Amino acid sequence: MGIEFITDREIYLKVIQERIPNAEKFVWIGTSDLKDLYVKKRTKMVPFLEILADLVKKGVEIRLIHGKEPGEAFRNDFDRYPVLIKGIERLLCPRVHFKIVIIDGKFAYTGSANLTGAGMGAKSDNKRNFENGFITDDHTLIGAVMDQFDNVWMGKHCKKCGRKKFCTEYI
Known about the structure:
Number of helices: 6
Strand content: 25-35%
CATH architecture: 2-Layer Sandwich
Number of strands: 10
Largest sheet: 8 strands, mixed
Number of domains: 1
Radius of gyration: 15 Å
Strand order of the largest sheet: 1-9-8-7-2-5-6-10
CATH superfamily: Endonuclease Chain A
Order of helices and strands: EHEEEHEHHEEEEHHE
CATH class: Alpha Beta
């Protein structure tokens, strides 16, 4: 694959539908906005959190960094999958604005799409945001994306951030 530029519905198909459900070791997701996202699973639409719950049950490690608290619908769906309570590591960082998906250290997406229905979801073309990004299996690029995610995850910027009182540490 190398590097591939993708837009709009391709983000949903190539990242959410094709790659994330097939993760074997870990999925790291970084997003500024986090909303209730529904995706196709076999013949029905389900909360994306169900896909993550399936992965947790298979032993896949999930890390999620988000920039603000999710809405009520997301929280309600989260409560429907108790395996996620201990099975997903989350970190709220109000400075996060990147949109990142890293799978098994072998695949990465970075671009404009938040983890929302209008950004990455299965919404129809007339209800979706205009989004774009890159997917890659290039180890150098994946390493750079992983480093950025990991630096935030490990709190490298916290001391100088000045917004710690707005953060919620879940990990």
